[in-house]
Amino acid sequence: MTRIRPLAAALSTALLMLTAAACGSDGDDAPTNVSAKTAALGTLTPGVIKVAVQPYAPYTTVQGDRIVGLDGDILTYVAEKLGLEIKPQVTDFAGMLAGVQSRRVDITIGGVAWSADRQKQGLFTDPPYYSPPAMAVRDGRTYKTVDDLKGLQLGTVEGYVWVKSIQSVPDAKLHAYPDANGVFDDLGAGRVDVGFLDPLIIIAAQKERPDLKISTQYLTPPTAAAVKAKPDYQYFQPYQTGFYLPKKATKLEQAISAQIDAMYTNGELAKLVKKYGGDPEQFLKPAAEVATARRGVDRPQDWTPPSIAH
Distance between CA atoms of 75 and 86, rounded to whole angstroms? Predict the structure, then answer.
């Protein structure tokens, strides 16, 4: 499984060169008075956590030396608890993964989907949230299941894994666009019935472009039997995100996972999800297959994925 959204639009050559220079630099001075506990986390620079991100609001946006957005706010909370100073480095999605796998950065965040293949080259934290299958729908229309999508005009962005899912829906017509704006424009104009995009992107568009007259709906995930019959339907199911770290960063991964787990129980994650318009019931309760996917792979056989109270 690939990330639910692939590479963002390519950044300029100049920006990538700057990023490469930043990734290769180890001249950052460690903060003064770093505790032994923080130093033991094993970051590239003691007391500093170097984070590779791409601009993808409202999940990750860099403002000065801060990362804001849902993932950014979660990591900021965790870093404060661990005594770490965040140093962001802007790149694209491929650069995010490469930076971790070559250990030029300590971590990457921003809706990175866990997969069995990807975990072979890095470490995943426990899921900071689960990404539900969201749909942008014109007001007054309701679609609940894959069967409801049959024969409709369905839009998404070129290269997104939803392309495969849409192509598997009987009699549905795929409309693929260079970016999310194209999906929203045609949805508002009535040329598309449903748009498949990351949920917080749809929620933000509702607020920023009320003229579109769209709403956010969540698809009832297809059953295991339906996915077995049509494997590409798997992308209509929720996926678990994770913060992604180098293979050797076991202490840091464990420390971050412990903080993430605590945020499920102390209400901090629910607060942040609500801040960006998300529904904690959708984002913070795992589907049944989440546990089975990771048990015996990168988690113990008795691992239970974190969840808010049922």
Answer: 9
